[in-house]
Design goal:
Layout: H1 13-17, H2 64-68, E1 72-75, E2 80-83, H3 84-88, H4 90-93, H5 107-115, H6 117-130, H7 136-168, H8 176-185, H9 198-223, H10 246-259, H11 263-276, H12 279-302, H13 309-325, H14 335-342, H15 351-363, E3 368-372, E4 375-379, H16 386-408, H17 410-413, H18 426-429, H19 447-456, H20 458-463, H21 471-485, H22 491-500, H23 504-507, H24 511-519, H25 526-538, H26 548-560, H27 570-577
Helix pairs in contact: 7-9, 7-27, 9-26, 9-27, 10-11, 12-13, 12-14, 12-16, 13-16, 15-16, 25-26
Length: 608
Amino acid sequence: MAKHKITDFFKDAHASSSQSTIIDQDNSDETLSLVSENGTSDQASNSSSATKISVHRSRHFKSVWLQEFPWLKYNKEKGVMYCEFCSKAGDVAGKTDFIKGTDHFKKETIKKHGDSLKHKNARDCIIARSAPKQTPLARAVAHACEKTAEKDFEEMKIKFNVAYMMAREELPFTKYAAQILLMKKNGMDISKTYDNDNDTACAEIIGCIAEEFKAQTLNEAAKATYISIITDCGTDVSGKTGQGQYTAVHHHMEHLSVSSKNSDISGRAKHIVQQMENLMFVAFCHFLHDLFGEISKLSLTLQKNSLILPQAVAAIKTCIMTVNNFKEVPLRNGKLQEFYKKINVEEMQTGTQRASQMAKRRKTSHTRCIAFQNIQLKDFDAQEEFMENLNDHIRRTVEATVGELERRFEVMLSSEKEGRTGCPDIIQCFSVFCHDSWPDDLVTYGEEEIDTLTKWYKTILLKNGCEVEAIQAEWRQLKFLVKGQFADLSYSSLWETVISKEPYCTDFGNVLHLIHIMLILPISAAQCERGFSAQNRIKSQVRSSLHISTLEDLIRISSEGPSLELFNPEPSVKRWFNSKRKRRPQYKGWPGGTYILGVSDTDSEPDL
C-alpha cells in the first residue's frame, strides 16, 4: 500500500488527480489507477467513490526508427521528429504534425503516417522532382518506349535485309515497294513507314549498309600493321561473243553466203563455211578447247581473294608444263583426243609418227568424208600432210602461249636475282618461306634472300618497330623450329600458327614482319576487274541517273558484301537509328524529348 504524508490529506483533490508519475516506458499508453496491494481502493475523506489518479508516461525517440522508416528524420535540438517527404511537399501532404515536427514519439503513430495517402502523394511528388524516370508513370512510359523500339528495330532488320538483297542482286530500287508488299501479304507485321517514297528509302538504307561496310574495312585497316594496295591501270576492252553449236554457226554462214546481197559479206561467209568443213580446222578447234581449258583453270585460281604466293607460283608452273606437253601428245581425255578417236586416227608417241602413218594411209585410199555434228568434213588427197600441218600449228600456238605466260609472270617465275629493271627480284626472294621446298641442310639456307628483303623493306620495317639486326638470328631459329615441329602443316596453317600463337609471335617477332608483308602481297587484279564489271552491270542505260555516291555503295555491296545468308543487319540498323538518316513520319514524341536510342526526332532529312 502506498505511503502518504499527513500533508497529502490537506491538498486539493483536483490537483492530486492531475499529478503525473514519470515512467520511462515506450509502448504503453494506458491510464493507470492507484490501487492497494489487496486490490481495494483507498478511502479519502470518507468518500464512497474511489478516487482515480491518472498517470501519463514520458516517451523518448528511438534511433532504430530511422532505419526502419527511411523517410523519418529527428531534430535533436528541438526534440521533434518529422517526415522528410511531407516537410518538402507541404502543399501535397496537407495538415499533419509531421510537416513541422512532433514530439509524440509512438511507433504506431509513425506507421499510421507512413500508410496515409497524403504521405504517399508527397513521396511520389518528391521522387518525381528528383528522379523523374523513377516514377511509376515514367517507368510505364519507358517500358512502352522500349517495346516500341524493339518492334521498330526488328522491323528495320527486315527492311534492311530486303534492301541488301536488292543491292546484292543488282535490282532497281523500284522493286523495293513490291518486296515490302510481298512481306505484308505473307503475314509479316510491317508498318507503312516510307510508303510514300520507297525508292528514296531504299537508297538511304543501302547507303547506310555501305557506310557500315566501309567503317569495318577502315577499322580492319587501322589495326593491320601492313596493308597492300592494288590498282588497275586500265580496263580491258573485250567484245561479247555468243557461243553456239558448231552446226548452228555453219548453217548461219551458209545462209549468209547465199542470201546476203553484200558481196563482201557473202564472200567471207563462203570462206568461213569452207574452213568449217576442213578437217584440220575442226581438229585445231578441239585443240584450242583444251588449251583454253587449262588457261581457264589458271585464271580461276588467280582470281581467288585468299590466294597466296606459293599457290600462285605452283598454278602458273603447272599450267606452263601442261601446255608445253601439248606439242607432243594431246591432253589426256581432252577434246582433241576424243576427236582423234572419232575419226579413227591411231595415236602415236609423236606428231611425226602420226603424220607419217596418215600419209601412208592416204596413198591407198580415196577421198573420204568424216561427219562432225552432221557436217561432212572433207578429207582430200591434197591434204596428205594433214597431221604434220596440224602439229605444226599446235607447236607454234603452244610456243606463243608459253612465251606470253612466261613474260606475263616473269617476276614470279624468274630465277635470276636481277630483273629487267635492275632491281632485286623481291617476289622470288619470298619463296624461302615456302617450307615444303626447303632442303635438308638449313644452316645457311635463305640468308641471302632474307638480307635482300631486309634491305628492300628497311624503311617500312624500322617505321613499324622492327629490329632489322635481329632478323637473321630469328630466321635461323625459325627454320629449325618449323622443320622439327611443323613440317606436316600446310603453308597457310604454318604461318597462321606462328603469327597468332605464343611464344612464337614474340620470339620471332622481327622476322615475322617479312612474313606479314609476304602474306598481303597482291597476287591478282581480279577484284579490280570485278568492280569494273559490277559498275557496267549496275549503271546500265535504264539506270544512268544514279548518283556517284549511290553507285559506289551499290558496287561496294555487290563486290565486297557477304551472301544474303551471312549478312547481319544489326550493325547497320544501329547506325541508322544513331544517324541523321532516321525518320519516323508517324511518331510524335514529347516536346523536347528524344527517341529511346538517343536520336532527336526533329533531325532534318538529308538530301539524297
